[in-house]
Amino acid sequence: MTSILISADDIKKDLPGYSPERSEEFHSESAKLADAKLYETIKTSKFEKVVLLSGGPASGKTEYFSEYLDKQDLIVLDGILPTEKGAGIKIGRISKSKKKIEIHAVWPQDFKQAFVAFLNRDRKFSDRYFYEKHSSARKTLLWIAENYPHVEIKLIKNAYLGEDLSFTELKFETRGDLLAYLRENQYTKDDIIKLVSE
Amino acid sequence: MAPKEIPLKRNNKNNPQIRSYTEAIKRGQRNVHIFPKDGEWKVKRIGAREEKRYSTRDEALSKAREDTGQNGGEIFIHNRNGLIETRFYSSDPYPPKN
């Protein structure tokens, strides 16, 4: 069993002119290509479940996929899900295909941890990108939870401990508990800047 | 009600994807950040409690170079909004001017 991973970051590597230092320049194009590949894959693949990953940059999504989702029969979109519009389109298209859909949101235990990883990996983006996407990913996740009650959402926390990563799933008794938690854990860009710099 | 926290068992302690991430964090822990704060310049590592304050940016830069030590590392200078204005290696012979 091997999941089908669709990743804008992987697609970038094949774009002419790309280098890791120019990742942000290529992100919009690679994200569109990833979406197109997702829609093609849901038409052609026999796999019955689609997982959309959600979470800001360097939150540990790809790492979570590689550890827990890789060896299953899944179609997985490794992305941020930063906009309600984009999320709505994806959920709509997947629902039409009759495949099951899940959102797996990966959040760092500590924004500082994610920020440090973000600044020091090969793919370079502006720090503004970090703050904006972490904020918008959470906002979009809440919007999905409020507007798509049939879409299962898993929330995973990623912590850097003892020079290794550990992952914890947060399990909620009810959808209402999940919604309350998501509402309590929304951050603006400025909130995150403050948390990272203090 | 607060959620239950269910630890997920790690299957592959040598996961290369995870190793790459943790190595990025380790590199980042050598870096030093300079923030303007209340008329002074704060020098610290992200995630560390310790921070030192200096009245001029040059003093802060000097401390930052010292803190990155022999292993090198990057220095990040932030603006008043907290965003990074410039980043450079502490061994860079041409630091940015004020």
How would you sum up this structure, described in words?
The complex is a heterodimer of chains A (198) and B (98). In chain A, helix 3 (61-69) links the parallel strand 2 (49-54) and strand 3. Chain A has 198 residues and is an alpha/beta fold. Chain A has a single domain (4-197), classed as Rossmann fold (3-Layer(aba) Sandwich), CATH 3.40.50. Chain A has helices spanning 8-13, 23-44, 61-69, 84-96, 111-120, 127-147, 175-184, 189-197; strands at residues 4-7, 49-54, 74-78, 100-108, 152-161, 164-171. Chain A is globular. In chain A, helix 6 (127-147) crosses helix 8. With 98 residues, chain B is an alpha+beta fold. Chain B has a domain at 31-89. Chain B contains two helices and six strands. Chain B has helices at 16-28, 57-68; strands at residues 4-8, 32-37, 40-44, 51-54, 74-78, 84-89. A five-stranded mixed β-sheet of chain B has the order 4-3-2-5-6, with helices on one face. In chain B, strand 2 and strand 3 (40-44) form a beta hairpin. The A-B interface holds A 58, 60, 62-63, 66-68, 110, 112-113, 115-117, 119-121, 126-128, 155-157, 160, 163-174, 177-178, 181, 190, 193-194, 196-197 and B 1, 3-8, 10-13, 15-18, 20-22, 24-29, 31, 33, 35, 46-47, 74, 76, 78, 81-84, 87. Strand 6 (164-171) of chain A pairs antiparallel with strand 1 of chain B, so a sheet runs across the interface.
Nearest-integer average pLDDT of chain A: 96
CATH topology of chain A, by name, is: Rossmann fold
Structural classification of chain B? alpha+beta
Major pleated sheet of chain A: 6 strands, mixed
Query: Based on helices, strands and strand pairing, what is the structural class of chain A?
Result: alpha/beta
Helix content bin of chain A: 40-55%
